[in-house]
Amino acid sequence: MAFPTVASPDGKEVSQDEGTNDTEPSSDTDYERIETMKGWSFQYNQGTDDYSLFFELLGGAGKTVSANVDVDIRIVNDNGEEVLAAAKSVTDDDFGYYESNAAGTRYLADIRIPTAEIQEGRSSSGTVYFTVRKGTIALFDEVNCMALYCLPVSDVKLTVDNLPVDIKVKGYDGNTESMIQITEVSYTFEKEYTPQLKITLTGQKTYGSDSGYDIIAYKLYDSEEYLIDTGTVFLNSLDNGDRFKGNSIIICDVTPGETYFLRPTEYSW
Fold first, then answer.
1. Which of 66, 70, 165, 257 is deepest in the core (most CB within 10 A)?
2. Which residue range is the domain that position 194 belongs to?
3. Are 31 and 71 in contact (CB under 8 A)?
């Protein structure tokens, strides 16, 4: 049996039937009458905390149809990790009307994938591959679409050795003007869109008067001891004995699942 023709996600069909579909969709349990698939896409549904894989099936004369079929799905993130390999059954109940500004109203299959079924990985983007079949017979060649900034990612870990850490703050002449003690380092990991690590230092000024601001430096290393980032933290208007909390260090484009090591250091002029 020849494969039915397949349309690309932008809606361009390669079947011989052209034109729009102005009739109501029909249920077509005879899978051999399905001629075209188009309009596939993948999205995260925040309200229900799951994912949707959409596609449209058409029969003769471009008539939209629903059908009882099976779909093999695999998702590979941009780090090369396969985070999902599953088979889903689709029935007439999984088809419905969906509207978008780009494509208008369309009659699509909606395969729901719970977030818990997708493994956390080291990239929030990837590629969704799927094959529509009936039993062991593939109705179409495998197709794919993008998953952009929506896949579950692993948490990062941040460590700091030997807290509390005392850091000298020196002036231009090299003399010690103040002393800063870091007592705690906390962090949050923001996973949406571009992964971002926010680091907060907590401590106290243990020596010196208010000089307007004190500067300390830091270095951030990954688990293989590669230097990832360096920078400075300005502590404003601290008198001797003043405690501080805040002055977040923000690291963009961190790698999910990675372990980082923070080293607060003395600032060099």
1. 66
2. 157-266
3. no
| Closest residue by Cα to residue 249 from 266, 262, 267 | 262
Q: pLDDT at position 231, please?
A: 95
- How many domains does the chain contain in total? 2
Closest Cα partner for 235 from 210, 218, 198?
Answer: 210
**Last residue of some domain: 147, 176, 202?**
147
Residue 256 lies in a domain: yes
* C-alpha closest to that of 234 among 219, 209, 217: 217
Within a domain: 52: yes
For the beta sheet containing 213-221, the strands, ordered from the edge strand earlier in sequence to the opposite edge, are 157-159, 259-266, 213-221, 227-236
Distances (CA, A) of 175 to 36, 132, 171, 233, 240: 77, 73, 6, 20, 17
Do 260 and 192 fall within a single domain?
yes
Q: What is the mean pLDDT of each run of 10 residues along the chain (269 residues)?
A: 40 33 52 84 95 93 89 97 97 91 87 97 95 90 95 95 92 90 95 86 92 91 96 93 89 92 92
Distance set, CA 200 to CA 92, 112, 165, 203, 248 (Å): 52, 39, 15, 10, 5
Other C-beta atoms lying within 10 Å of the C-beta of residue 48? 11
Task: Tell me how far apart the alpha carbons of residues 87 and 203 are, in angstroms, rounded to a whole number.
Answer: 53
Would strands 243-252 and 137-138 be described as parallel, antiparallel, or unpaired?
A: unpaired
Q: What pLDDT score was predicted for residue 195? A: 83
Q: What is the CATH number of the domain that holds 107?
A: 2.60.40
